[in-house]
Amino acid sequence: MPPPRYAIRLDPWAAEYEGAIQLPEAGDEPLGAVDLRVELEDWAAVRPPSGPPPRRAFFVDGVRRIEHRLLIEDGGRTVFGLLASFGVGAVEVGEMARAGHERVGRVAVAGGGLALEPFEVVLGGHRMTFAPETVAENTPMAPVQGLQSAMRRSEAGLAERLAPEADVVFLDGPLTFLASARGPVVGFVKRQLRPYLEPREASLLSRLEVGERTPLFLIEQVRESRYSWYLRIGAGRAVDSPLAGLVRLETSASLELAAVRALADTSARYLPRFASDPARDPRAPQNLYPVGALEARLRHRLGDATLIRRATLAHLHEEVRSRTRKSVSLPLRGEGQGGGSMRRGAERERAFPSPYVGRDRVGGR
Predict the structure, then answer these.
(1) pLDDT in tens, 337-353
(2) Do 158 and 179 touch, CB atoms closer than 8 A?
(3) pTM (2 d.p.)
(4) Which residue of 99, 126, 308, 316 has the fewest CB atoms within a 10 Å radius of its CB?
(5) In this structure, are strands 168-172 and 185-189 parallel, antiparallel, or unpaired?
(6) Left, alpha or beta for 336 (phi > 0: left; psi -120 to 50: alpha)?
(7) Taking the domains of the chain in order of start, what are their residue ranges?
(8) What are the helix (H) ranges across 107-215?
(9) Where do the H-state alpha helices sit in 123-277?
């Protein structure tokens, strides 16, 4: 196999640089029309009647970690990239909580549409492969978005596999990456970045009590429309925004309206019990307890960051040495025709003159 035409080098920024920035969801379509009257004409808080909890409920989430940021020399251009790990799993909550379905993925993401080869390192006698991913943009944040998309696709695939055996699957984030959201999969959106409601209807959000939701509304999209609703799962502190503790949930518009209403009522009865405490989680109350526990397990599954970074660094050092050896070992003109080594010696002497030139090499002048 011919060597790649590109050269991978480390970005001088630390891997964690900008790691705390919350990215917008990749793949979200432009906002279409929103129908606010699909469930109720009167836009008022909905508190569902009491009912049993779901028999089988799953929470699906993932974590990601950048191992190295990269600058890739590709011909005459520099491409931004990264090496990263991500983990995806689920928690089933019934009489007791059980974590499982865990998977770790590793990706080598490059911007500018550059297709990398798989990046392989050896760690503890085992081969670790970072699978290639590419994104069209070539900006410092574009590879991070590519990593986020790879993780979200894995989360969506797991939610789809769990849906046939579940009463409800709560998937972290919107349903952007679901190929087919026909089952009881509910997207759980913790941050409210896009306005869906008119001012009159939006005024209800700050008045919702814990366990109350808004009426359903329909978000029309080109690819697949979704039903959505807001729900307050916990109370914020006195210093917090009135929107603290508010989440938005969504499910496929391919479901019958009665089934969507049942899922919305289940979420309102069920999710507030899992709202986290600000003393234990800075993302409280939106980051649910089962999700927080799953994230801790998945971070452990990613492996030791220091060892992985040492292994990737050693691989890159060896690649640089290999390229250097190849460039140094190129034959000089005339070599192989006799006297090549003598000519090289003379050229070296001219380029790097001996400190003994003009002196008696045995001693003295």
Answers:
(1) 444 444 444 444 444 34
(2) no
(3) 0.83
(4) 126
(5) parallel
(6) left
(7) 8-14+29-316
(8) 142-162, 199-202
(9) 142-162, 199-202, 257-270
